[in-house]
């Protein structure tokens, strides 16, 4: 246990014992330091920074080029669909197209192949459910 979690554990254990009337009457020497919301946000953004600011070109190609290809694929898809609100099947198809664009930049990245299969499976499951509901 690190010092912070050990301190939290000790404080919680002491509080529980006091509340249960087990004779522990001393108070902890320090109350555990909780992170502020601002500190949590800063920590979160530091994590995001490690993903966004590393050399993404190796894995996904240039972000602007990749986004342009995604836009072209989505635009082509949307031109072939009736003018309506998008539904869950449309989203599954568009997410598959998103992964196709990523694969165009780097077909050796297995994560994109896995993600593509996952989106296709989710879309297939949605369609299977709708077909099952239509049969009733």
Q: In words, what does this structure look like?
A:
With 136 residues, this protein is an all-alpha fold. It has 2 domains: 3-50, no CATH class; 55-135, no CATH class. Helices cover 72% and strands 0% of the residues. It is built from 6 helices and no strands.
Q: Structural class per helix/strand content?
A: mainly alpha
Number of strands: 0
Query: What assembly state would you assign to the polypeptide chains in this entry?
Result: single chain
**Given the C-alpha coordinates, what overall shape results?**
extended
Task: Count structural domains.
Answer: 2
What brief labels describe this structure?
mainly alpha; 2 domains; 6 helices; extended; disordered N terminus
SSE order and pairing:
Layout: H1 3-19, H2 37-52, H3 57-60, H4 63-79, H5 88-105, H6 110-135
Helix pairs in contact: 4-5, 5-6
Overview in brief:
The protein has 136 residues and is mostly helical. 72% of the residues lie in helices and 0% in strands.
């Amino acid at each position: 246990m690190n010092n912070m979690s050990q301190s939290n554990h000790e404080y919680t254990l002491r509080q529980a014992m006091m509340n249960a009337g087990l004779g522990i009457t001393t108070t902890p020497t320090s109350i555990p330091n909780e992170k502020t919301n601002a500190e949590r946000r800063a920590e979160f953004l530091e994590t995001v920074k490690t993903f966004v600011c590393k050399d993404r070109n190796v894995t996904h190609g240039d972000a602007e080029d990749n986004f342009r290809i995604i836009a072209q694929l989505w635009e082509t898809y949307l031109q072939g669909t009736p003018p309506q609100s998008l539904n869950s099947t449309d989203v599954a198809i568009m997410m598959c197209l998103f992964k196709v664009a990523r694969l165009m930049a780097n077909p050796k990245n297995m994560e994109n192949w896995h993600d593509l299969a996952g989106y296709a499976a989710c879309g297939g499951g949605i369609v299977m459910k709708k077909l099952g509901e239509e049969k009733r």
